[in-house]
Amino acid sequence: MSALLEVNGLKTEFPTKRGLVHAVDGVSFTVDEGEVLGLVGESGSGKSVTGYSIMGLIDAPGRIAAGSVKFQGRELVGLPGRDWRAIRGRDVAMIFQDPMLTLNPVLRVDTQIVEAIHAHADVSAARAREWAAEALASVGIPSPEDRLKAYPHQFSGGMRQRVAIAIALLHKPRLLIADEPTTALDVTIQGQILSQVQTLAREMKMAVIWITHDLSVVSGLADRIAVMYAGRVVESGATSEVLTHPAHPYTLGLLHSLPSQNRPGERLLQIPGAPPQTVGARVGCAFVPRCTYGKARCTAEVPTATTFHEGGRRSVACHFALMNNAAATEATHG
């Protein structure tokens, strides 16, 4: 049986004065019904652009240069705008990091939510308003009937994000792409949202791609993790496997940078250097300038993803993955 979402060899490019930026450079993964995939990496790793590419939100001069994105077996790359309008918000929805990308500042909240309801559901005005109030209440907004009459600027940043999340979940989409949606929320509300997403994924068989730089969030939320670096997936697999036995040195570096991995009073471990520019053709492994395991082969040859264990769903793109896996196991547990 095929996965709900199949991304294969996805490449997204943006022309600039300095050259062609390969923001997403051959990304492949699958997501099953009811599964939560955590897409993890530093800023600039290509996580968000991957989400925008899946949603068909790459505007000129940017373009999807190659690859395939299939949802329920249907190819989404190159889909006409009319077809996309029937899919977005109903079958596939996205929560953006900045809620003002979702909300119109000059329209009341009720107008915007009711409009989103009527875009895909033939219900009365009274039922649509009732539905809108239920949606606000579900994300922890008090007095939802009164808050429906407010404008976005009358909400705090966290409250605006909750409205955006409510809109995304209105039609219980089959696939939800969440681009760091809980960054602006307090811990209590963040926990409520994460719990709600897990419940929907389980009960409605909704697939979720949760984009984040926070491993502590995906550790309790995601079934599988895909770690991105410089536009590519460098490691993927079951959450427990990736977090306890990282096979790529970048994944190991991310884990070591967590406060929970360090003794109280000790300086946090850091990955040296900075993420590379993704302009122009790539020669060798993008991580090698920051890698403590790098060898001559790494500077000359781009590593390809090798699958192992888990029925082929555990993969790593590293020339010395097995060595790193042993070192990572020792470093993580001892």
Could you describe the 3D structure shown?
- The protein has 334 residues and is an alpha/beta fold.
- The chain folds into two domains: 5-91 and 173-333, P-loop containing nucleotide triphosphate hydrolases (Rossmann fold, 3-Layer(aba) Sandwich), CATH 3.40.50.300; 108-171, no CATH class.
- The protein has twelve helices and twelve strands.
- The chain has helices at residues 47-54, 81-87, 109-118, 125-138, 144-147, 157-168, 187-203, 215-221, 239-244, 249-256, 296-300, 321-333; strands at 5-16, 19-31, 36-40, 63-71, 74-75, 92-95, 175-179, 207-212, 224-229, 232-238, 306-308, 314-316.
Give a quick set of tags describing it.
single chain; 334 residues; alpha/beta; Rossmann fold; 2 domains; eight-stranded mixed sheet; four-stranded antiparallel sheet; 12 helices; 12 strands; 33% helix; globular; disordered C terminus
